[in-house]
Design goal:
The protein is of the alpha/beta class. Helices cover about 40% and strands about 15% of the residues. The strands form three sheets. Strands 6-5-4-7-10-13-14 form a seven-stranded mixed sheet. It has a four-stranded mixed sheet with strand order 11-8-9-12, with helices on one face. Helix 2 packs antiparallel against helix 3 and helix 6 runs antiparallel to helix 7. Helix 9 links the parallel strand 5 and strand 6. The chain has twelve helices and 14 strands.
Length: about 400
Amino acid sequence: MESQRSLPRTIFVVRSGVENAWIQDAAAASAVAAFVSEEHVPAGAPIAVILDQSVLPDREEYICTRDWRVVVNAIATLKVRGAPAIGIAGSIALMLFAFADSSTAQLAGGAPCKGDVEEGRAPEGFDVAAYEAALTSCAQTIAHTRPTAVSLSRAVDASLECARTCLSAHMDACSIAEALFEVACARIQEDERINRAIGEAGAPLLKDHPCVLTHCNAGSLATGYFGTALGVVYAAASHGWIERVYADETRPVCQGSRLTVWELSRAHIPTTLICDDMAAYVMSRGLVQACIVGADRIAANGDVANKIGTLSVAINAHHFNIPFYVAAPLETIDFALPSGSDIPIEMRGEDEVCKEPPFGVDILNPAFDVTPAELVTAIITEEGVYAPHELAGVAPLSAASSMKRMR
């Protein structure tokens, strides 16, 4: 589809001085060039590039950094958000930690890539235990930044497992950092493949439902590229099956009004922005024939944790007999959690809801809610479409997908 060329790429890594196909627009290219020049970045050094979603749609700005702590802050402050995207960010953050001179060089007893040793082999005096402990501590910090989205912890775990495998092979710190760079790049590429597969699997569901409602942002901005829920919309649109998308504003951070409509407009998809409390109205008027959302974590029984307000959409859809679809990678399914009541729900700051509440007024700000499986029509994955009660049979596919990401 021609409009897909306008989809944003929200997070990726480049090497200083090396041409990279992930740099798709002038703003990203300019940001990288300025960072390399101002920070005197040596040739070949890895750089994380993040489209700052906290300032969209007013400004299109990119964060460029070699500091893993900047990436973690970007996750915490929603500069990068969406379960697949923060999974990628977590992988990148641990890789940058491994590259950091302040960590690896000191722990390795000197510069980790130099010395009279066999190339790629750990030098004499390399403290393996201290190095692994430092990586593990960093990984825990990253994974705990946002607890609800399982993709973050799984991405970090996969990178940490790669590092431990390298340590078992007696590789030096520089080689381990390079291995983690490859893991991060592979995750970005695999994420796009998965999203496109989700899109193709789910598109036929919208063939006879040309007007759809979505909540929050589960598009290219929430992933490495293309999107999950909006990926289904883009795939359906490429067949001419989409007439209009109704986008909830998604209070309190307004991912719908700030991000989803911006992304859909770039993709030339006809879009109508509505307030969250208008969803029942558009359903009652027959303006919407299907609802589709993403997910941050799905329990073994099919309960779905997603952005706060998703439950309200599902309840309304059930009342008006409108199909409610969830689009998410298999990795999102957490078979270790029997039901949605076991999913940890992140509580965010009061200032997102009200900067200065009246005296004596308390504020509740859960970032997510849980939609019971009985309100979910189907879950769309890269391996196909499943009813919630069918997820038990998907477990082997999910395990295989996780193993593929780790390789």
